[in-house]
Amino acid sequence: MEGIREGGVSIWKGIPYAAPPLHSLRFRPPREPAAWAGVREAKEFGPAALQGESPSMKFLGDSPLHKREDCLYLNIWSPGADQKKRPVMVWIHGGSFMYGSGSSHLYDGKSFAEQGDVVVVTLNYRLGVFGFLHLSDIGGEAYRGSGNCGLLDQVAALTWVRENIEAFGGDPDNVTIFGESAGAVSVGNLLAMPLARGLFHKAILQSGTARCKVTLEAAVKMTEQLLAQLQIERQNLSELAALPAEKIIEASGIFPRRAFGPVGDGVVIPEHPEKVLYAGLAKDIPVLVGTNAHENKLFTYFDPAWKDMDESEIKVFLERTFGSSWAAGSHSAAQADALNQALSKALNQASNQAGYEDAMTHYVFTYPAIYFSEGQAKHGAPVWMYRFDYASKALGGEAKAFHGLEIPFAWNTLLAQETEELTGKEPCRFQLAGLMHRAWIAFARHGDPNTPGLPDWPPYNEENRATMLFNTHNEVVNDPDGRQRLSWEHVFKN
């Protein structure tokens, strides 16, 4: 395979890790790619998954132009194809399972390879309706796992890494998976999936944890609605294979923009991932997990609908948002009362935009990360927690430490001109990026993010709740914002 050389780094782009998921393979688990004769050129990124447009993803720099249904490709950065068995880092991109790619300038693995002597892999996986349309309840065994094709693509890529990465200078027995947002949720699901066991050895979750995005009941209902929109009878599912992809994308427009994602199908995801992880399923996997201080500001900035709501609309919106807590299953009377009190408190605190942003940051990101970390720690698993507090001067400073801002710091891609739109131009950001980058490298190498230049960073447990606060001044704080943590605890714990 012929790639390119940039300085001291070899790069291979657009390597197929699975067969194109077209025609009869549409909505089916990935198959092995066809073999090729001779030397394959690997100098250009493969196409990203089919997807719509997202203003926030465009701002973050992950809005690909080259998109096709044939999208199952990965990319590799390595100091050399010399069989030196370096640590391997496999990145899973975010984008609400609807947007994004493995080829954004943010995910340039050159610095990891140069400064960390590690091998970096990025990948594309099927998104939206093509990645997460649950057909097996209607189509039977032929469509087994269809509601999680996107996750199965990730498993296929990790299988490819295990079988091939040694030829690119990587160690198949020292693989770290890491991701942000939907990528971190993917990492959480992979930690809980029997099919992924043994394919990786450490995990980094940035602004996301393990959860099913869509219940089985909701997934079946969505499938029925889409088939009706396409005028396809239940007994004629094979017609889906012949439809133009664009027609399926157009029909899926009846759903909200972020409707699709991992389905709790009982097959690919046999049990609720949060619960099995809290029970200790992945206690042998070191994890690094964290969030940003002002996650939700990105979404309110690019969705101005909030500003146009009157008080009654705000109340309905908040009740719909917070009333869907995934922990709100079977409760005792006392627990139900505590849950209602916590939700009422959240509604009262979130009656303005700033309060809403803070509540959503804790509800969607901060507390789930704490819950996940508690579950790991109580079983003795090595777990480190961080919070990214650096406030960007971009967007007039309005968005602060918003969702996704930590990515160019962890990847050390600040020199890319495009990142100034995200981070601002302050010189102090380079020191922070260097320290975070080295912490990620240390974790991938040893399973411990401690590195020179950072304060001593103890593992997280329920006694100390040690959390590294990344900022212009880095410090470890025990149980930061502990009062808010306690106020959300009843919302999530049964």
TrEMBL record:
Keywords: Coiled coil, Hydrolase. One of its GO terms (molecular function) is cholinesterase activity. The keyword Transmembrane helix does not apply. Residues 213-240 form a coiled coil. It is an enzyme of class 3 (hydrolase). Signal peptide: none annotated. InterPro entries: AB_hydrolase_fold, CarbesteraseB, Carboxylesterase_B_AS, Carboxylesterase_B_CS, Cholinesterase, Lipase_GDXG_HIS_AS, Type-B_Carboxylest/Lipase. Residues 8-476 form the Carboxylesterase type B domain. The active site is at S181, E295, H403. Its EC number is 3.1.1.-. Belongs to the 'GDXG' lipolytic enzyme family. Belongs to the type-B carboxylesterase/lipase family. This is Carboxylic ester hydrolase. It comes from Desulfitobacterium hafniense (strain Y51). The lineage of its organism: Bacteria, Bacillati, Bacillota, Clostridia, Eubacteriales.
